[in-house]
Amino acid sequence: MVGELEFERPIIELRNKIQELRDFATNTDVDLSNEIGKLETRLEKVEKDIYEHLSPWNRVQIARHPERPTTLDYISRLFTNFFECHGDRTFGDDEAIVAGIAKFHGMPITVIGHQRGKDTKENIRRNFGMPHPEGYRKALRLMKQAEKFNRPIVCFIDTKGAYPGKAAEERGQSEAIARNLFEMAGLTVPVICIVIGEGGSGGALALGIGNHLHMLENSTYSVISPEGAAALLWKDATLAKQAAETMKITAPDLKGLGIVDEVVQEVRGGAHRQVDEQAQYIDNVLKESLQKLTKLTPEQLVHERYLKYKKIGQFSFENDTIGVK
Q1: Is the pLDDT of residue 2 over 80?
Q2: Residue 279 CB neighbours (<10 A)
């Protein structure tokens, strides 16, 4: 089965068994409703046990699910009158980032997000969701336009990281990311960032400096992938599961650390199970954030954003050394 996850195998086996019994009952006119009912009760219990006790590595797997909704999936469900804008006015257009103007419940906004593909052809077109410098410059161009016309900005984060290729480095990948961080910190309009899949390294952070940072329940946000961390720490990428346990990269962990403002509930089993329902959860969080932020003055927005990042991490001075609590 496409996108089947290892920890979901007991659930999938039960679902298949239930479907077999239903098909058999339909074809033979045998009443198996009692047996099917028992299996459905058991399935409900197994799903609850598994999905309510997901490990960090399980959440990493769900965040990487090939059918997980992308930025464009949410744009079509959350916004109206979306008009996509292209190009950075310097080099070209990067399809790993989509950006444009839309309306959210009648309010004009600017929406920007990483975009990966769901099959090989689209992944190649989107460069697997890993932007080049021109992608970040396109995003910044739209942000400055939003500031000029006083439109709130919504950023969807879903990337393994910025593209590390030779051409990207030649065109100033590091400078483009750093410029976005600098400029986003001082934007005088509301900026809301939502991690919808993988939030990887500076490639994610370049769209992640906002007044509110939200994360879907089964998304991840980290300076490096679990495989990369395992390779660096223990010289063995196969220890990725262990790395995921210790890195604190999941939404509940980051909420506890004060980095994430709100964890957005996901439908049972992951956002890919019911995209329309998941979009509604995001809709509710966006409305709440915009209601709060649109009441603030430009100066208050910038100051609040400054305080948000200033308070991340607590420092103590002990024995003339600086330690991080």
Answers
A1: no
A2: 18
Global pTM reads 0.89
237/224 Cα distance (integer angstroms):
12
Q: How far apart are CA 211 and CA 193, in angstroms?
A: 8
- Alpha-carbon distance 46 to 258, whole Å? 32
177, 216, 174, 175: which is closest to 193 by C-alpha?
A: 216
Which pLDDT belongs to residue 36?
Answer: 84
Listing DSSP states for 239-303 in one string gives GHHHHHHHHT-BHHHHHHTTS-SEEEP--TT-TTT-HHHHHHHHHHHHHHHHHHHTTS-HHHHHH
Alpha-carbon gap, residue 100 to 79, rounded angstroms: 11
Secondary structure (3-state) at 319: coil
For residue 212, the model assigns a pLDDT of 97
From residue 295, give the alpha-carbon distance in Å to each of 3, 99, 186, 210.
Answer: 43, 25, 18, 16
- Model confidence over 84-103: pLDDT tens digits? 999 999 999 999 999 999 99
